[in-house]
Amino acid sequence: MSSAKRILLIIGGGIAAYKCLELIRRLRERGHSVRAVMTSAAQQFVTPLSVGALTNERVLTNLFDLDDEREIGHIRLARDNDLIVVAPGTADLIAKMAGGHADDLATAVLLATDKPVLLAPAMNPAMWAHPATRRNVAQLKADGIRIIGPASGEMAERGEAGVGRLVEVPELLAAIEGIFESSERRQQRGVLEGRHVIVTSGPTHEPIDPIRYLANRSSGKQGFELAAAAADLGARVTLVTGPVSLPEPAGVDIVRIKTAAEMLEAVKAALPADVAVFAAAVADWRVEGIKTEKIKKTELPGAPTLTLSENPDILKIIAQPGPDRPRLVIGFAAETQNVLDYAKSKLKSKRADWIVANNVSPASGVMGGENNTVHLISAKGVESWPEMSKAKVARRIMERAAEELHTKRTAAE
Ligand code: CTP
Known about the structure:
With 413 residues, this protein is an alpha/beta fold. It is built from 14 helices and 21 strands. The protein has helices at residues 19-29, 48-55, 66-71, 74-79, 91-99, 105-112, 125-129, 131-142, 169-189, 221-232, 260-270, 314-318, 339-349, 390-412; strands spanning 6-11, 33-38, 83-89, 117-121, 146-147, 151-154, 161-165, 196-201, 206-207, 213-214, 236-241, 253-256, 275-278, 285-287, 308-310, 328-335, 354-359, 371-372, 374-378, 381-384, 388-389. The radius of gyration is 27 Å and the shape is elongated. The model has no long low-confidence stretch (mean pLDDT 92). The structure holds cytidine-5'-triphosphate.
């Protein structure tokens, strides 16, 4: 059995709502605390009074109940728990979840939560079989919602039978405990245990001759922090870095390269990987016709002219669809203006799953500094994070990457 957890139970408006009373008792017997939200339809089947008596907490029913907003607020309600259980999940509630509605407390909480959600559907078999419900359920699965049931059997309506019954309480309990136990196991093992993470970092140096090179101001700090965070969370890490002077993070395989071409080869050699994070400030151009001997002023009539050619875009190459593509490809967008617009277009043009965008204009102090203010851009939209240390940014990115891998796997199951 898992340790004591906080469960938010969202009770939908179905005849099976009465089973929630038993569920609450069993969960509390196991030491878990339960807070309940009831839709208005649910209150037609069981009363908030009886639910509240069993949870020993006030039952929440109304999004616009000012007292609730002052005391907890729906955003906190959505996050101050370890798991949200939706039971019975009616066809209407499922449709609202799939469509991202938020017009009552239950749906607003479900839209605002960052916690796992377990949905136990219950409805008439014809409603369950309807293409609209099939579509909605497929969407919820793709969104990472865990679904248990429905079971088959007799319906409350006379003469109706088929798939649509709420699963029985012991099954619901087992599913809930299963979620807690697997998340505890993952935490103990490190959420990235068994994963391979590749990180590129630092600048690249593009030689002009054996002495001189083209470079940029990247310190490599963010990339090194990413590698350290991934290793800390249990991953096997390959850090491919350009020339920097930073201490090596513990438990990381470090591959030191100088040029963009070498970085590309090193990344390819490190594949396959579950996650690849491209934090390097790769030089966009290299010098053509690199001299093998030092260029002497005396041998030239004036200043030399450098001819540049474009370097391979490592992120773009690795993010191409194919068997070797890491499951999660994360790029960085270092910009000095129009940060979000440029970053969004990089998400598309490079086919990355996420872009971490930051403002690196000199006034930001990011280049070489300890802190970073980033936006996480994905197909889902833009998340702007507050300013924090590069170590914290790294930790958060890696934790999110672990969640994403887990969600993708759960959805695929
Ligand atoms: N990147 C890469 N290989 C390159 C250039 C960039 O892997 N040759 C990666 C970087 O590591 C980063 C992302 O692509 O994750 C965006 O890099 P950035 O320098 O911001 O963008 P560029 O593609 O170089 O575009 P621009 O310089 O025009 O902003």
